[in-house]
Structures are given as C-alpha cells and as structure tokens.
Design brief:
The protein contains ten helices and ten strands. By secondary structure, it is of the alpha/beta class. Helix 3 packs across helix 4 and helix 4 packs across helix 5.
Length: 296
C-alpha cells in the first residue's frame, strides 16, 4: 500500500542502520516511512575510521534524492571524549571527531550530533578542554557542517545536563566558529536530568529559550524514558510507554515552535528493526494531526 503524502514541512524519522555502507541508510528510512534520518558514518564503538570514496558519496546522494529524504543528521562515535584530561584519549578523540566532520562534509550531511565530553576531574577544566577541542576540530574542517551539542542525562561526569553548562560550552568556542555550533535536545535526557516535560512543559522551553535560544535548536531526539523523573539515567523507551507518557510528545508534535526542527526517534528497535519505528512514527503523526497549538 502506498504511503499517504507527508506534510511539506515534516522532518520526522529515526536513527537507522548503515550496515552495508552509508548509502544504504536512506532506503531503510524510506522503509519505515521517515522523511528524515540519523546515522553513524562509522562503527560507533570502534576507533577504526571508515573511508568515504567518491563512489560511496555519489550513491548516498542519489539515494537521498530517490527516497525524498528532507533532512539527514550524523551522530558521532561513542568513544570520543573531547573533555578528557587524558592527553592520549584527547588526541585520539580530536582525530576521530575531525574525521567525522570530514566525512559529513564529503557526504553533504549538514549536522553532527555530539555528546559533550566527560570531564573526569574538574567540571570547569573539562568544559574548557571540551570547547578548545571542538574549536580545534571545526577549524581543521572548514565548511558548513554544524556541531549539535546534545543534552545529557547527567550520569557520572558527563557535561551538558544543565542548560547553563551547554550555553557556557558554546560561548567558550571562538565567535567565528560558534556560528557552526547549535543544539540537539533529547526528551529522555532532559527528563532524567530534572527538566520536567510532563508537568512543566512550557517552563522548560521558556528556560531553554532564555538560556540557549530556540533559534539554536536544530534537532530533537524523541525518546520516552524507562526511568523516573530526575533519575540521571539514559534509558530510552517507546513513545508514550515510559515515565514521560504521551503528553510531552503531543505537545512537541503540535507546537509550531518545533515545526522546522528535525525530529529523530532513538527508541528500541525490536527484532526486525522496522516494525516498532513504523509504529512510533504513526503514533507521532497521529499526535500532529490533532492540530497545531501556538506557543504560550
């Protein structure tokens, strides 16, 4: 059965596999009915770098065009820690993140979502190292690729659980490069970090706009949470089936402030990697059809 037409401004999808090469990702996004996708340009839990040939680049671009994907986002490697005090890990992380920016520039991917680093010793020192290393990588790879700093759940020594910390990190990056730095908000991470999207939805986004600026929000990771409010644990659940429940997702899908923000599922995949993503996208679209709500 042919899928129904999507709204012209919809940017909704999921993180999809790149098994077989990055050029296979758009077809997987098409299979779940997405209009946007997120991917890894390399194996995320290995240091080994992937090589993007001209042939792979061209195949990827052809597939994006064939499938009609409207937005694509990369996510950096889980091993990268640009805030670490360890000089060996720092050097390796800078090299890996630089390579990520280079792959995205070659593939024409405009955004790289990145978890701020783990400071390990002192938060202020870690933030300074984090900013210096982001700047170093961006300077090495001129172009249009933007880094989207992702909100974190606040586990351990991870930076980025508080809006003020993310704002300070971006502000510490030199102005000429700062224009290439925005934000990605993860609903599960926000809730786990103590931002109550269930009971104080409007206040959370008012605070976001005051501290970070809604204009800098380029991507939303739509994930429910397996753990309670303020747990500081990063455990994703299916939409409306965790401690967040349906209400925050209904609000996001019907709030005009988020119409042009890329929305990406990172919810559990299930055995076939397709059925649950399709179900979650249908659920989110049903929320959107309930009607738009102006910002308060």
């Amino acid at each position: 059965m042919k899928a129904s037409p999507r709204p012209a401004d919809e940017l909704l999808g999921a993180h999809v596999s790149t098994q077989g090469g990055v050029h296979t990702a758009p077809a997987r996004a098409e299979a779940i009915g997405a209009t946007a996708l997120q991917l890894f340009t390399k194996t995320p839990n290995q240091w080994r770098e992937s090589v993007i040939t001209g042939e792979i680049r061209d195949a990827f671009q052809r597939e994006l065009k064939r499938t009609g994907m409207r937005a694509v986002v990369s996510h950096d490697s889980y091993l990268i820690n640009l805030a670490t005090p360890d000089p060996v890990l720092s050097k390796r992380s800078v090299a890996a993140f630089t390579a990520e920016l280079e792959r995205c520039e070659l593939l024409g991917i405009p955004y790289v979502v990145s978890h701020p680093g783990n400071y390990m010793d002192d938060p202020s020192l870690g933030l300074s190292r984090n900013a210096d290393n982001y700047a170093r990588c961006l300077d090495r790879v001129p172009g249009r690729v933007m880094v989207l700093l992702e909100t974190t759940a606040g586990t351990g020594t991870a930076l980025g659980a508080r809006f003020e910390e993310l704002a300070a990190l971006r502000a510490a990056i030199p102005a000429p490069l700062r224009a290439r730095v925005g934000y990605c908000a993860d609903t599960c991470h926000l809730y786990a970090a103590g931002y109550d999207l269930r009971e104080a939805f409007d206040q959370v986004w008012t605070d976001w706009d005051r501290v970070l600026g809604l204009a800098h929000l380029r991507c939303l990771h739509l994930n429910d949470s397996k753990t309670p409010f303020g747990s500081r644990r990063d455990r994703h659940e299916l939409i409306a089936e965790g401690s967040l429940g349906p209400a925050p997702f209904r609000r996001i899908m019907t709030d005009v402030r988020f119409d042009h923000v890329i929305k990406i599922l990172e919810t559990p995949k299930g055995d076939d990697m397709v059925t649950l993503d399709r179900k979650m996208l249908r659920r989110l679209r049903a929320y959107a059809r309930a009607g738009r709500r102006p910002p308060r």
